[in-house]
Amino acid sequence: MSRSLFGDAWNTRGVHVGSTRHAATLARVFPMRTTSRGRLGTRELVLRRAEVRDARELRELVVQVTLDAPRTQAIVASEVRDLARYEARIAESLQEPDGLLLVACDAARDRDRGGTIIGELSAKPGSRVRLRHSVHLGLSVASEARGQGVGRAMMEATLVWARSKPSLMFARLACVASNVAARNLYDSLGFKVDGVQPGYFLFEDGTMEDDVVMSLRLREGGSA
Ligand SMILES: CC(C)(COP(=O)(O)OP(=O)(O)OC[C@H]1O[C@@H](n2cnc3c(N)ncnc32)[C@H](O)[C@@H]1OP(=O)(O)O)[C@@H](O)C(=O)NCCC(=O)NCCS
After folding, report:
1. Ligand 1, atom 31: nearest CA belongs to which residue?
2. Which of 1, 54, 88, 218 is most open to solvent, judged by the fewest CB atoms within 10 Å of its CB?
3. How many other C-beta atoms are found inside a 10 Å radius of the C-beta of residue 107?
4. Which of 181, 175, 112 is nearest to 143 (CA)?
5. Whole-number pLDDT of residue 111
6. Residue 65 CB–ligand 1 contact under 6 Å
7. Chain mean position to CA 183
8. Nearest to 40 by CA among 193, 142, 115
9. Cβ neighbours, 10 Å, residue 6
């Protein structure tokens, strides 16, 4: 393994190993091996693009988050319930040059399979030509892995990836107002609140919550 002054390194199988904070110097981002650190612990992670074979495991994660974090926008969409459609969605994500479906794998578990998936992050460019300079982000971390820097590692690596795409000017996301963990994470990465959509979410118990819309400028240029 070789290590540069910046703390970045590549292992012999071509996997990027090292600090996500310094990965900005590298054009190639994934797969990346890194150690995440949070208030509740650390994890050895492999961050890589989701593959079609991950569909079943990813679906379990999405279902789990929907159940344990009911006051988020996470829902089990119909294409996630239908495995074939979910596989097709993953295959599509692999074809999108300005999009990414990223998984965080706990490298210490299921080593022969390349680790267990404990987080996912989707980054999708706008669907119309005039919206394609923005990438829309959404992420989830398995409940047993939260507070260990996994969400931050995925976000930081994704922002490195996004900044390596010349056509992307903004990262955008939206968040249920009461989701303090997510808001703190986005604030700490430099996202700014663009506005609030009052009563945007209506939950199953009849209560409503505002939607907080946030963005981060990825590069200079343009006139916005
Ligand atoms: C939000 C979420 C992705 C954060 O992921 P995570 O891996 O637990 O977060 P990290 O350990 O990387 O922490 C990153 C930062 O988030 C904030 N944060 C995380 N957990 C927090 C908590 N319980 N309370 C307050 N802030 C918290 C902190 O600012 C933290 O930085 P710090 O460690 O320097 O204090 C995760 O809690 C999750 O998946 N929640 C359910 C789904 C969801 O809400 N998705 C986001 C939808 S907008």
Report:
1. 185
2. 1
3. 18
4. 181
5. 80
6. yes
7. 14
8. 142
9. 14
E strand or H helix at 155: helix 150-163
The alpha carbon of 44 is separated from its chain's Cα centroid by a whole number of angstroms, namely 17
pLDDT value for 1: 40
Structural domain spans, the chain: 2-169
Q: What CATH code is assigned to 2-169? A: 3.40.630.30
CA distances from 125 to 132, 167, 189 (A): 5, 10, 20
Alpha carbons 211 and 218: distance in angstroms, whole number? 22
Residues in the chain: 224
State whether the beta carbon of 184 lies less than 6 angstroms from ligand 1.
yes
Ligand 1 midpoint to CA 8 (Å): 25
Kindly state if the Cβ of 182 falls inside 6 Å of ligand 1: yes
Q: Is the whole-model pTM more than 0.85?
A: yes
Alpha carbons 169 and 40: distance in angstroms, whole number: 34
Q: Which amino acid belongs to residue 39?
A: R
Instruction: Give the Å distance between the CA of 1 and the centre of ligand 1.
Output: 31
